Amino acid sequence: MGAMELTVREAAELSGVSARSIEKAAEEGVVTKKVIQGSLRAIPSAHVPMHVVAYASVLKHTQGFHMSLSTKKRLFRCIREFGDELGAFEPTPGVRLSVDTLAAEEWARARNYVAAKGAYLESRADILGGEPIIKGTRITCRSVLGRIEDGDTLEDLCDDYDDIPREAFEAAIIYARTHPPRGRPVKGKPWRA
Q1: From CA 118, how far away is CA 60, in angstroms rounded?
Q2: What's the total number of domains in the chain?
Q3: CATH number at residue 170
Q4: What is the pTM of this model?
Q5: pLDDT tens digits for 56-99?
Q6: Cys-Cys with 145: which of 31, 52, 133, 176 at CB 3.0–4.6 Å?
Q7: Residues 79 and 28 occupy one common structural domain
Q8: Which of 58, 76, 108 is the last residue of a domain?
Q9: Are residues 134 and 98 in the same domain?
């Protein structure tokens, strides 16, 4: 996986929209979606450019402003040309969208996630059968998410593991949310519980 690519679910989680919104952008030809092998799991999945996070965030924040398909394509091209520092986009003469303001929070979160994922998460076949973990530990991404879902806070995790940076836990949570386990449930019918 390229450093500037995310799975569809990661992009949706980071931009605060549904995965369907990201899929729609790909179906409309605004963004290019390709199926490649993930960086932590050997399972192929759909990936999109990281800039789709800023694009989806702008659309989310400007829901009352209708954009034609050609304008959406121009918006995405413009966002990609911005690179790491977002700027302004002019969909029509006299109308200016401050992409840097509209998508600032989501874009920063996406950049931090990509950096932290590369720095702190890994998957090795000789450790827990390749389950994604925080580097240098046997703490799985799913176990971090499980603790958060059971009521622990990030501060609790940081207190318990003071040698692991907060960013590692944040990346593990996002990764676990966007990469649910595949296959059948282990036993019984958990949906009845």
Answers
A1: 28
A2: 2
A3: 1.10.10.10
A4: 0.86
A5: 999 999 987 889 999 999 999 999 999 889 999 999 898 899 99
A6: 176
A7: yes
A8: 108
A9: no
Tell me which residue has tokens 């303001």: 101
E strand residue ranges, the chain:
5-7, 34-37, 44-49, 88-92, 95-98, 121-122, 133-134
Give the number of other CB atoms < 10 A from CB of residue 193.
5
Residue 189 within a domain? no
CA dist 119 to 17, 104, 127, 167, Å? Answer: 26, 22, 17, 9
What DSSP character marks residue 112?
H
Which residues, including other chains, have CB under 8 Å from residue 167's CB and lie 6 or more apart?
A: 112, 115, 116, 119, 120
Q: Among all chains, which residue has been given the structure tokens 């401050």? A: 98
Q: Which residues lie closer than 8 Å to 155 by C-beta, 6 or more apart?
A: none
Work out the number of other CB atoms within 10 angstroms of the CB of residue 140: 19
Residues 15 and 97 in one domain: yes
> Rounded to an integer, what distance in angstroms lies between the CA atom of residue 34 and that of residue 45?
8
CA distances from 181 to 104, 109, 134 (A): 31, 24, 17
By residue range, what is the domain housing residue 128? 120-178
Q: Is residue 104 part of a domain?
A: yes
The verdict on 99 and 156 lying in the same domain is: no
Q: Read off the pLDDT of residues 126-185 as tens digits, 9 standing for 90 and up.
A: 888 889 999 999 999 999 999 999 999 999 999 999 999 999 999 999 999 999 887 766
Rounded Cα–Cα distance for residues 40 and 114 (Å): 12
